[in-house]
Write a structure and sequence with these properties.
Low-confidence stretches: none
Strand content: 25-35%
CATH superfamily of the largest domain: Zn peptidases
Mean pLDDT: 96
Shape: globular
Structural class: alpha+beta
CATH topology of the largest domain: Aminopeptidase
Distance between the termini: 48 Å
Largest sheet: 15 strands, mixed
Number of helices: 6
CATH class of the largest domain: Alpha Beta
Length: about 325
């Protein structure tokens, strides 16, 4: 047996023309099901020799704009004329998606922190390994759709990773412009390299991500941005020739997270009171929020200040905090060429 071949199998045709639906079968032998598996829905539409676009949602199970946008796309995908291939997985970490949790209820793993995964790992690691070895290599362009989930609220933002090569960079930024999100942001995860995006970059594929809501709900405005942007992205790639794709509603504002000075973390346990709102412009030294001690409510709260200037793009939604919790994320205006 090939030691690198994923444990997960697929009952779907990736290379035949037409619209195909099926399941990724994740082996899962447990007390209630000795020979069982976890089925993850997947769909493929293929025709012609154009590029392949991989669309995924549900990397975190409590983020709904992506899965709903992709499930709505699947309602009419079979009738869509294309030149290329579209692979759609609306609920990538399916156990987490069904549970409505950021992490899997089976192994408690965060899929976006286990790439490139493991062939013989936990359920989440096996899914990541399959994506890294079977789906990424098939794709030319990859879009993984996120939101803030239960613990965050996020401005609607396309997260971008511009290549350094001039020609590739120009093509990439053309796709970013076609999506026409209100904001496009170069993220800095402070050296974290176990993410879906880091795995895509290692394979040299064009990668888009995005944050389109929060609070563990489906934001109608964020959903509309995703749906409209997807229609324009499909046209911009040449996979779909649809002159009816909606016109852009936003002039994209470009932002960049500049390292740890743009993060505010809680140093203590307590109850968090934010003092800024999404989209507020702040300056270094300005009050970011207060952490109250519920065990000594008469004590003065701990006041937290910003370490840099920027715009509040992401704010914690849970009031209860522990040391190390991210409370606010900033970004600065930037120009991409």
């Amino acid at each position: 047996m090939d030691a690198q071949k994923p444990r997960i199998t697929a009952d779907i045709e990736f290379d035949q023309d037409g619209f195909h639906t099926g399941m990724l079968r994740v082996p899962h032998s447990v007390d209630r099901s000795a020979y069982g598996h976890i089925p993850i829905p997947i769909a493929v539409l293929k025709n012609g020799d154009g590029p392949t676009l991989l669309l995924t949602g549900g990397n975190h199970g409590d983020e709904y704009e992506g899965p709903i946008a992709l499930m709505k796309l699947l309602q009419h995908l079979s009738q869509t004329a294309i030149n290329g291939r579209i692979i759609v997985v609306p609920g990538l970490n399916f156990p987490a998606f069904l549970a409505g949790k950021r992490t899997s209820p089976i192994d408690h793993a965060n899929m976006n922190r286990v790439f490139p995964g493991k062939r013989d790992g936990t359920i989440t690691e096996m899914i990541a390994h399959y994506v890294d070895t079977e789906l990424f290599p098939r794709a030319d362009i990859i879009f993984d759709i996120h939101a803030g989930g239960q613990s965050f609220n996020h401005m609607p933002t396309l997260l971008i990773y511009p290549p350094q090569d001039g020609v590739t960079r120009e093509e990439y930024l053309r796709l970013v412009k076609s999506f026409a999100a209100p904001h496009a942001m170069v993220m800095d995860l402070l050296g974290e390299d176990r993410t879906y995006g880091a795995a895509v970059e290692r394979q040299g594929k064009l990668f888009l991500c995005g944050e389109f809501g929060g609070y563990g709900t489906c934001n109608p405005d964020g959903l509309a941005i995703v749906e409209e942007g997807l229609a324009r992205l499909l046209r911009a790639t040449g996979i779909v020739r649809d002159d009816a794709a909606p016109a852009p509603r936003f002039d994209t504002r470009y932002l960049q997270v500049e390292g740890k000075k743009h993060y505010v973390f809680s140093p203590a346990m307590g109850v968090f009171e934010p003092t800024v709102k999404l989209g507020d412009r702040v300056v270094k030294g300005q009050l970011a929020g207060r952490v109250f001690n519920p065990h000594a409510p008469w004590s003065a709260p701990l006041e937290l200040n910003f370490s840099g200037d920027g715009i509040a793009v992401c704010i914690r939604s849970f009031a209860g905090v522990e040391p190390g919790d991210c409370l606010v994320l900033l970004a600065s205006d930037t120009t991409l060429r």
